[in-house]
Amino acid sequence: MSRPILGILGAGRAGTAIARQSMKAGYSVLIANSRGPASLRLMVEVLIPGATAVTAEEAVSRSDIVYLALPLGKYRGIPAEKAAGKIVIDAMNYWPAVDGFIEEFQQDSRSSSELIQDFLPRSQVVKTLNHIGYHELEEEGLPPGTKGRRAVVLAGNNPEAKVVVARLISDLGFDFIDAGPLSEGWRFGPGTPVFGGRYTARDLREALESASREQDTRGWARSDIETSPSDRYSGSSSAPMQMSALGKPVSGAAGRRGDVGEALGTGGQD
Ligand SMILES: NC(=O)c1ccc[n+]([C@@H]2O[C@H](COP(=O)([O-])OP(=O)(O)OC[C@H]3O[C@@H](n4cnc5c(N)ncnc54)[C@H](OP(=O)(O)O)[C@@H]3O)[C@@H](O)[C@H]2O)c1
């Protein structure tokens, strides 16, 4: 069966890493930045051979899955109309230490991906792969069933979209757990134990549950931000690596935890 075409918005650290890793897994990749394909051609040739540099509009309209790897503050540049009816992976973070304060995200208590879903009302947004560093994405993928396989979280309001994205995650080399609807996205954003932590599926569930609203970067004062490390994607967790356990699925309605594992017939967690 042919794999879906991935249209990546953002050709920086995260965008190029996801491009390489997904091409290794057999996906076709279209990639765009904000300046147009001519500015990307040499970079694509050298860093992501096999990918096709296109405009942002083309990356969205010609793909099956859109992958958002641009700075969150630039989200209004996403060609929303072209994304109608598509699955959109939101891998972006509201991370004031890196992006500065963005009033809109600072003031809204909803998860950043809910705001992205509002901006893309006719797309199925799934938040995931935001909490793993770009280099880890390439270096830490393992085949399904491998002992110690690292897991990532996904959240979304549309169960079918989550199943498609869960397949991509597994093809990239990772287990997954389903955190439920997009409103749960804050549980794996910057500041939480999941963000930058290395966990198997079993440990990841615990880390997800242990997140508290105080850890959400929106609660941080400007002084905290000035003194916080600016690259915290990796290595902050001392969580032990344990055997990955794809286990029993939890049944539930759309957007509830466990839906994805059930639909894939694996369960995403133990
Ligand atoms: N770095 C990581 O390890 C990592 C891991 C997971 C998630 N993320 C998330 O991924 C996002 C990008 O992070 P990054 O570190 O990859 O940033 P980066 O290296 O600065 O790259 C940002 C890319 O976004 C492009 N871009 C900006 N506006 C755009 C638009 N309207 N349409 C298409 N592309 C646009 C930029 O292109 P131009 O140069 O042409 O403007 C650039 O190629 C952030 O939200 C971050 O939180 C990062």
Question: What does this protein structure show overall?
Answer:
By secondary structure, the protein is of the alpha/beta class. It has one domain (71-264): Rossmann fold (3-Layer(aba) Sandwich). Helices cover 31% and strands 13% of the residues. The chain is built from eleven helices and eight strands. It has an eight-stranded mixed sheet, with helices on both faces. α2 (41-47) links the parallel β2 (28-32) and β3 (52-53). The two termini are 29 Å apart. The chain binds NADP nicotinamide-adenine-dinucleotide phosphate. NADP nicotinamide-adenine-dinucleotide phosphate binds at residues 9-15, 32-35, 56, 69-72, 74, 77, 91-93, 95, 130, 133-134, 233.
Features:
alpha/beta; Rossmann fold; eight-stranded mixed beta sheet; 11 helices; binds NADP nicotinamide-adenine-dinucleotide phosphate; single chain
Shape: globular
Radius of gyration, whole Å: 17 Å
Largest sheet: 8 strands, mixed
Task: Quote the beta fraction.
Answer: 5-15%
Instruction: Give me the strand/helix succession.
Output: EHEHEHEEHHHEHEHEHHH
Arithmetic mean pLDDT: 86
Helical stretch count? Answer: 11
Structural class: alpha/beta
List cofactors, ions and other ligands. NADP nicotinamide-adenine-dinucleotide phosphate
**Which architecture name does CATH use?**
3-Layer(aba) Sandwich
Kindly, what is the distance between the CA atoms of the first and last residues, rounded to a whole number of angstroms?
29 Å
Structure summary, number of beta strands: 8
CATH class: Alpha Beta
CATH topology: Rossmann fold
